[in-house]
Amino acid sequence: MKIYTGNFAxxxxxxxxxxxxxxxxxxxxxxxxxxxxxPSWSYMDDPEDMYTRKFNQHLATLxxxxxxxxxxxxxxxxxxxxxxxxxxxxxxxxxxxxxxxxANLHITVKELGRAGIxxxxxxxxx
Length: 126
Prior knowledge:
The protein is α/β, with parallel strands linked by helices. It is 29% helix and 21% strand. The chain has helices spanning 48-59, 64-75, 93-105, and strands spanning 3-7, 18-21, 32-33, 80-84, 110-113, 116-121. Strand 5 (110-113) and strand 6 form a beta hairpin. The model is unreliable at 118-126 (pLDDT under 50).
């Protein structure tokens, strides 16, 4: 199973991937959600550096291999796109999740651009 990241605005362009919300809210989205990768309301308005520190502390409480296995079970082994609201290039916790998965599982997690899977972008360095 491969893991990608993307946003709700481009969900129709991710044909062939299993969409999974990791957002706190997803108005109108009725698909799969994986709450373990949600940020907390308690730091949503914090400055980016503080938000990053707090979210990374949250990720440190999780087992990356267990997260991967649970996502694989949720998707039936299909490739997954982790979704939230921010547009590509904006700061977003999905990029922190991608970096965490890459560092701990030695996999590549690509951010999908507006063109969808056909034109995926390499995850930028945060």
